Amino acid sequence: MTTAPPPTTVPALALGAVAGKGRPGGSRIACPLPDGGLLDVGSLATAQRGPYPDLLTAPDLTRLLDAGAPAWREVVEWLRGWREDHERAAAYRLPDEGLVPVLPFAVADYVDFYACEQHARNAGLIFRPDAEDPLTPNWRRIPLGYHGRSGTVRVTGTPVARPSGQRGPDDFGPCAKLDFEAELGFVLGGPVPGPVGIDDAADHVLGVVLLNDWSARDIQFFESRPLGPHLGKSFATSISAWVTPLDELSAARVPLPAHDPAPLPYLTPGEPALGLDLDLAVRVNGELVASPPARDLYWSPEQMVAHLTSGGAGLRAGDLLGSGTVSGPERSGFGSMLELSWNGRDPVALAGGATRTWLEDGDEVVMTATAPARDGGRIALGEVRGRIRGA
């Protein structure tokens, strides 16, 4: 009996922006090709009378996000045809070398949620081991989150400086418990006053990036009583260079885990709420340390949008939502060093006999993800990487 070969994984249809390394001139919008090359989207739209050339010749995706869902959906469908016609697309291919990614859009507001039950449960077990329920009473009732700092969102490849802060009473210095958090980021557009109804929320989500919400745990732990994270999170957040449209991930939409209790009406869509079946991988210095499954997220991106705006806050082009750390039920799926090392108790093995409980200067963290493709294969989302630099 023969076994079927594994499905081919190709770069997802996505949108981002690149610039010439060390060259004068601005950035331009690009799209990854199936063979790993890059398509010059603006030049293609101008020469071939594609949709919205004025938006696609902009330096990044901000104006496209401002135009809203009808515009970006038309652009995505148009690009899908060009990606499949390799010979015609060749004339608009960017050079294979000398390009660097830039932040794909101007980040307006950044909100980080706490949408994975396993991560919330692990954190509860670590910090409240004697609690009857490791989850707080509100966790299953609302998508919990906090407002982050949009000005420190950085594109993949940007070095991350170890932050300093108060680690305890009368103790100021470089963070000694530096951590990563493997997350999904949802990129929003179509500016609108709030609230946004749950059944309209998908019209404001262009797509998904991978997101690393770097965390200074010792600083975070000391400052987070009683309020949420501040300096422990605000120093850096890394995102991938490519935004994969939500429509491109249609084959990855799966039912959410069962909700108990049932969400209130403003969080209950007309059709069953759907999550995303993405397989994440986290490597430290090239060593696979975790494979978190995004399908386990408890809240959907649409529910996050509905909750965020339920108090009257509107949406702006370039708003960014973090899912919160993605973690599975086994240690191999934990999406942070906090969980993998159980707050420093259990060292994580790396190649060559090295171990880590927290990240050290010079360590590089790389996050990747794949998803089911519309044609039955698999697609790869843009990676997010960052190397730790000393304080």
UniProtKB/TrEMBL annotation:
Protein name: Fumarylacetoacetate hydrolase family protein
Coiled coil spans: none
Entry-linked InterPro entries: Fumarylacetoacetase, Fumarylacetoacetase-like_C, Fumarylacetoacetase_C_sf
Keywords for this protein: Hydrolase
Cross-referenced Pfam families: FAA_hydrolase (PF01557)
Listed GO MF terms: hydrolase activity
Domain Fumarylacetoacetase-like C-terminal: 111-387
SUPFAM superfamilies: FAH
